[in-house]
Design brief:
- By secondary structure, this protein is an alpha/beta fold.
- Helix 1 packs across helix 8 and helix 12 runs antiparallel to helix 13.
- The strands form 2 sheets. The protein has a 6-stranded parallel beta sheet, sandwiched between helices. Strands 7-8-9 form a 3-stranded mixed beta sheet.
C-alpha cells in the first residue's frame, strides 16, 4: 500500500522504517526535515504538508507529542482534512484525547474519510523492533482492511471498539503504570529507610506473588467476574498488612500517602461488614462511586486466557 507517515520522532522514526520493511511505499512529513533523512535514504518520498501526504497516500499514520499537535496536523491549515477524499483513511498512533479524536472523526466523516485511533505501547525500543501493542478504535472493517500495515508496525494490534476506545485503553494502561510507579517509590523508600539493602529488597519482592504475575492478570480472579467469596486472602488480613507498613513508615519518618489512602479504603470496606470476604472486595467501593457494575462471565475470561496460551 502507499502509506503516509507524519511525525518521525523518537517513536515515529522506527515505526515508519518498519512500514518500509513491510514492503509498503512510504510518504513522509515532519516539522523537522532532518528527522526523515534515514527514511528518504531507504526509499521514502517527501511531502511538504500533511494535506499533500493525505492526497498521495491510501492510508496515513501520525505519531505526535499530544492533542494540540494532532489537532493542528489533522484540521489546521494545510492539515490532513484538506487532502481527504471519500475512502481515505487516517490512523493516529499518538497518545491522545478520545474526545478530540471523536471530533476529528466527525469532521473527516463529512467528506467520507475514516479516522481511527491507534495508540501504541512498547517504547522507542519496541518502535524500532516492531514489538508494539497497538490499541485501535474505529470502524472494524477499516481496521481489518489495513491490518497488514498495522502488522508491519507492531506485533500486537488489537481492535478495542468504536472511535476513542483505543485511546481509552492506552490511558487506562499508562495511568495504571504511573500509579504503580508512585506506589513502588513509596513502599521501596519505606523498606530501604527501614534498613534493607535496595538490591536485596528488589530481589526478594520480585519472587512474591505480585512479582511473579503479569500486572493485569489479577483482575481475572475477582474484579472482572465480581467474585469475592470464598476469600483467597481476607480483607481483615490485608488491612492488617497495610497497617503494619504504615506503622513502619511512621517509625522511620517516610511519607506514605498512597498507603494511608489504601488503609482508609480497606477500613471503609471493613465497616461494610466485609472483613471475611476477599481483600479485593474493596474494589466494589470504586464501582459504587463510578456508578457501574463489572461482571464478566468466568467462561469468557477463560476463553481469552486459553487463546493467549495457544498464541504464546
Amino acid at each position: 500500500m502507499k502509506v503516509g507517515f507524519i511525525g518521525l520522532g523518537t517513536m515515529g522514526s522506527g515505526m515508519a522504517l518498519n512500514v518500509l520493511k513491510g514492503g509498503h511505499e512510504l510518504v513522509v512529513h515532519d516539522i523537522n526535515r532532518e528527522a526523515v533523512g534515514l527514511h528518504l535514504e531507504a526509499g521514502a518520498a517527501w511531502a511538504d504538508t500533511p494535506a499533500q501526504v493525505m492526497e498521495v497516500s491510501e492510508v496515513v499514520f501520525t505519531s505526535l507529542p499530544g492533542p494540540p499537535d494532532v489537532q493542528a496536523v489533522a484540521l489546521g491549515d494545510n492539515g490532513l482534512i484538506h487532502g481527504a477524499r471519500p475512502g481515505k483513511v487516517y490512523f493516529d498512533l499518538s497518545t491522545n484525547s478520545p474526545t478530540l479524536l471523536r471530533h476529528i472523526h466527525a469532521e473527516f466523516a463529512k467528506v467520507g474519510a475514516h479516522v481511527l485511533d491507534a495508540p501504541v505501547s512498547g517504547g522507542p525500543r519496541g518502535a524500532r523492533s516492531g514489538r508494539l501493542a497497538i490499541w485501535v478504535g474505529g470502524d472494524r472493517e477499516v481496521y481489518d482492511r489495513y491490518k497488514t500495515v498495522l502488522d508491519a508496525i507492531g506485533d500486537k494490534p488489537y481492535y478495542v471498539g468504536p472511535i476513542g476506545a483505543g485511546s481509552i485503553a492506552k490511558l487506562v494502561h499508562n495511568c495504571t503504570g504511573y500509579i504503580i510507579q508512585t506506589a513502588m517509590a513509596e513502599t521501596f523508600s519505606m523498606g530501604i529507610k527501614a534498613g534493607v539493602d535496595p538490591l536485596v529488597l528488589w530481589q526478594a519482592v520480585r519472587q512474591g506473588a505480585l512479582g511473579r504475575r503479569q500486572t493485569f492478570d489479577s483482575l481475572t480472579e475477582h474484579f472482572l467476574p465480581g467474585l469475592y467469596d470464598p476469600p483467597d486472602f481476607a480483607l481483615r488480613l490485608a488491612r492488617k498488612d497495610v497497617s503494619l507498613a504504615v506503622e513502619v513508615g511512621r517509625e522511620f519518618d517516610v511519607p506514605m500517602r498512597l498507603a494511608n489512602m489504601t488503609y482508609a479504603e480497606l477500613t471503609e470496606a471493613l465497616n461494610r461488614g466485609w472483613a471475611q470476604r476477599d481483600s479485593r472486595v474493596a474494589m466494589l467501593l470504586q464501582e459504587e462511586r463510578a456508578g457501574i457494575e463489572v461482571r464478566v462471565p468466568p467462561e469468557k475470561i477463560q476463553e481469552v486466557l486459553d487463546s493467549d496460551r495457544k498464541n504464546a
